[in-house]
Amino acid sequence: MEDAPLPIIDIPKEVIKESFEIKQKEKNYKFNINLINNEIILNILDENDSMKEYENKLTFDELKNIHKIFLTLSSYKDFIDFINAMIENKKIMIKENKENQITIEFIVEYLFKQNIIKFELNQKKMNYELSIQDLYQKFSNLEISYKKVIEENKNIREECNKIKEENKLLKQEYQNFKNEMEKRFKIMENENKNSINRTNNLELKINSSNKNLNSIKKNNISLSIDSTIIEKNEFDMIYSAIKERMNKEIKEIKKLYQASKDGDDSETFHKLCDNIPNTLVLYKSEGNRRFGGFASQCWKSNSYSIEDKNCFLFSLDKKKIYCSKNNYIRICNNGYDGPSFAKDIFYIINIKSNALTEETLRTTELKHNDIFDGDEYALSECGSFGYACLKEYEVFQIIFE
Questions:
Q1: DSSP 8-state code for residue 105
Q2: Nearest-angstrom CA–CA distance, 323 and 399
Q3: What share of the chain is helix, strand, coil (3-state, %, to 5)?
């Protein structure tokens, strides 16, 4: 059977230009795409260093050979839409590999797997004469600004001298007022000494009562958890972490989903747990490792991850809480996956459908030192499950007062 013919790409005759702004850590890049006849020109300009500009040229035929996903393109606009989607979803990474080379990486989902598409760009030779002229003009503008600042500072100095004189008078008035108030305070202190002692004793009793009440609440909530994974006395660590991040008292914990009872397919999970905020997920692996995560954002069935500033992970076996020291942990919303967590674009805990019957669990804590801080086997037995089965996983809703 003959292969289906490749789509014919509609190539406009005129020159077309598109530009995108990309912010990556402390660097700002300008990503330009020019189309001239059958040639695509990819251009990256380092806006922090105008002397660094990188470029690569390729034809549409060469583009189709880079990855099969480009075989579906039927027009130049399709390629621009693809680039725009990658940037909006933060699935683009710019890496400076060598002294004179830079790499653009796109993270794409193709046939239900993550693929990395790379374009390598070489540094262009700069017109140093024009660069020097540009620098000279900038320095000239700085000199004009500097003269203005000097003139403004003269006026500021004069105003400061006036303020200093006024402050001397205010300082003397304040000292006189302070002396008078100290005399009055000593008289009041002697008169109210007994009253203060009684108030302090009362506050101690109230604080003691509040601590006892909070302890009773915490114990009642721990005893009410209907779980086959967590022990009753293990919830205190999670209770404290949730309260610290949400700054609210927990009223109730409601069980939403249990894979072994409700079905371990992703459709059932999303049906029972989508659009509900403040959920706690507990996992138990084949090797009896117990771990989980808290998400304040809602689970959904779309294909976008959500940044969650209150999100954290934990290990029940190690009795530790794990959270990001730099950016926030993300919850991964995908109708084909169970409750999964990620940092930037890389999974930490990935649960595919049929998690109890197929090898669809993967953890990658070894890649996330800013979260696990050298705790190499935080979740799995050997730092990564690769893909394995779960024994059980459960989802609970945290209800606040």
A1: E
A2: 22
A3: 40, 30, 30
The rounded distance, in Å, linking the Cα atoms of 232 and 237 is: 11
Strand intervals (E) in 25-91: 27-36, 39-46, 53-59
- Residue 390, by phi and psi: left (phi above 0), alpha (psi -120 to 50) or beta? beta
Q: How far apart are CA 176 and CA 173, in angstroms?
A: 5
Gap between the Cα atoms of 54 and 102, Å rounded? 7
Tens digits of residue pLDDT in 187-238: 887 777 766 666 566 566 545 545 555 555 666 677 778 999 998 889 999 9
16: part of which helix (H) or strand (E)? strand 16-24
**CB-based burial of residue 287 (10 Å sphere; 0-12 exposed, 13-18 middle, 19+ buried)?**
exposed
Domain ranges of the chain: 16-126, 229-400
In Å, the largest CA–CA distance within the chain is 105
Quick check: 12 pLDDT over 90? no
| Separation of alpha carbons 182 and 88, rounded Å | 63
Is residue 391 within 8 Å of 356, Cβ to Cβ?
yes
Q: Which two tokens stand for residue 202?
A: 């009362």
- pLDDT, tens digit, for every residue of 145-187? 888 888 888 888 888 888 888 888 888 888 888 888 888 888 8
Q: Are 348 and 377 a contacting pair, CB within 8 Å?
A: no
The backbone torsions φ and ψ at residue 377, rounded to the nearest 5 degrees and listed phi first, read: -115, 50
- Cα–Cα distance for residue pair 380/42, rounded to 1 Å: 42
Instruction: Report how many helices (DSSP H) and strands (DSSP E) the chain contains, helices first.
Output: 8, 18
Distance CA 192, CA 190 (A): 6
Q: 386, 282, 287: which is closest to 338 by C-alpha?
A: 282
Distance, in Å, from the CA atom of 294 to the CA atom of 341, rounded to the nearest integer, reads: 10
Class of domain 16-126: mainly beta
Count the neighbouring beta carbons within 10 Å of the beta carbon of residue 275.
9
Residue range 67-102, pLDDT digits in tens? 888 888 888 788 889 999 999 999 999 988 777 899
3-state secondary structure (DSSP) of residue 340: strand
How far, CA to CA in Å, does 208 sit from each of 195, 213, 338? 20, 9, 43
